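Continuing from yesterday's entry. The apo prediction looked reasonable, so today I'm repeating it with zinc ion included to see how the binding region is handled. Same sequence as before; SMILES copied from the compound registry.
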Amino acid sequence: MQATGYRIQQWGGALRWESFEVPDAKPGEVLVRVEACGIGLTVLNCIRGDLADDKAHLPRVPGHEIVGRVEAVGEGVTSPAVGQRVMAYFYLVCGTCRACRSGRDSLCENLEGWVGVHRDGGYASFTSLPARNLLPLPESIPAAQATAIPDAIATPLHVCKTRARVRKGDRVAVTGAGGGVGVHMLEMAKLFGAEVAGLEASEGKFEAIRAMGATPVLSRSFDDVRLDRVWDEGAATVVIDLVGTRDSVSWGLKSLAPGGRLVVLTTFRDVEVPMSPRDVVMREMTVLGSRYASKAELAESADLVASGRIHPIVSHVVAPADVETVHRELRDGTLIGRGAVDWTKS
Ligand SMILES: [Zn+2]
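Holo prediction written out below.
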């Protein structure tokens, strides 16, 4: 199968528009006709080589938030079937280890990497992936909207449901609230019954934060952010940090109410945050890491969208020729929610 799309020839290098051969689906694998692929900061991190930068994996088609339709299946594949609508799970998991078998897929003990890094992703018209990386997607959800499900919506579900266990009575503060994961985190925390504050460095994203039912808070400098302007109690029961700097995480620790939990999701290298054990004990705080989501949570996220309880915010959908425009908006910090590339427009 001849595909067209973007590939990188070196990590951190430019996207190049190319035609290339996608081989027939191997045993256990599936050829997918890509309908749309999400564009977010993680894709830029992948292109830069932040997740892995082995030259053996080049050239590479980036993009992991893939929505498409099964074009062909390899030997031994019984599901998904040809013609079925699917979305991709980001992590290349083994499917057989203890973590995979107990539904904690993102902790796979034999992780083989990531879609868009170790396997070609969705910045091209076709891609092939292991069958176990593809999950069914309802027909009713438009493709570009659906690209938010496998990461930007599933990640908040994992945080709110499995990690922080957000519930009625919680006061949740989210840093980086206007980004792709951020806006959906706000709506997810609301869905779980919390009052929500969304911290953003850019006032241009306040309207989107309000639309999610959250109170926007300017966080150009974390030194100036005080929650007593949002809540009488002046502190959050849950802080979800999507910024990942020393300042943002320190602010999170400082802003927790007694018994509060801080959830961290970023993986930047060389970020260290001082923590006082005395303070953690006296206020009985919990610090939680949250890593992506399980396959079950992807399926549940699709249900939440299909039933209208979660609304994907994919604010800029472009034809393949305009992918770089959205990359620029991401670098400038002006994109609200997610972007997506629509392959049906090619
Ligand atoms: Zn595994």
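Comparison notes:
- Residues 93-94, 97, 99-100, 108-110 surround zinc ion (CB under 6 Å).
- The first helix runs from residue 41 to 48.
Will overlay with the apo model tomorrow.
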